[in-house]
Design brief:
The chain is 19% helix and 23% strand. The protein is α+β, with helices and mostly antiparallel strands. The strands form 2 sheets. Strands 1-2 form a two-stranded antiparallel sheet.
């Protein structure tokens, strides 16, 4: 997942009875994660990674200028390309 090696923050949290953990406010501020933000969950072998979810275009994977069309995310560049082909 990405080219950067993960580094330890030195923060340890326990999982509660419902399987929840609390993300420290310092990390949420640093990573611009607000209440109710969606996080994407990735798993690789014995590692769990959380990433702030950013919708991406179904055609080019861009996250800029996203519009939802019939439940699919499409960027303005791909909309323009599709319109030009018509």
């Amino acid at each position: 997942m990405g080219g950067k090696p993960m580094k330890s923050t030195g923060i340890v949290r326990k999982v509660d009875e419902l399987g929840r953990i609390v993300l420290p406010i310092e990390l949420r501020r640093t990573l611009d994660i607000a209440e109710r933000d969606a996080l994407e969950i990735f798993v690789s072998e014995d590692t769990i990674m959380l990433k702030k979810y950013q919708p991406a275009c179904v055609f080019c994977d861009s996250s800029k200028g996203i519009v939802s069309y019939r439940g699919k995310n499409v960027c303005m560049n791909c909309i323009k390309d599709l319109a030009d082909r018509s």
